[in-house]
Write a structure and sequence with these properties.
By secondary structure, the protein is mostly helical. It is 43% helix and 9% strand.
Length: 134
Amino acid sequence: MMMEFGWATWQRCRASRPVWMRSCPYAEFNDDDLPAGVEQIDIRLIDTVDPDANPNVDFVLTDTVRLIEQLRNEGRTVLLHCVACQSRTPTVAALSGARKQGISGPAALREVISILPDPYPNSDFRRALKRLAP
């Protein structure tokens, strides 16, 4: 699983019609902040351990990863973003990696966590990874 971070990565990806996926519509970036030609897709995934916050967490995670797979199959670069890259981004990246590599969600999460500065997916997201990529 390959993950890169930083502005240099963003610049390098621009040639492949990138898609900026954010899981938090009130995060620091707005549509106007993105370079021309970059598509932005907002995902409703709330980082809290509350059943009412994400009543369809399995569907949202699976649907998001399927969209990532579709976009990648089209040759597009997908950049994931949330507020702090601690819970939502690692969870989506782990599910995507688990499906691509045919490994368990927890194994993929360990790989993702090993390269991030301060990750800690919440317990609801960890349970979802176990259900969706056992």
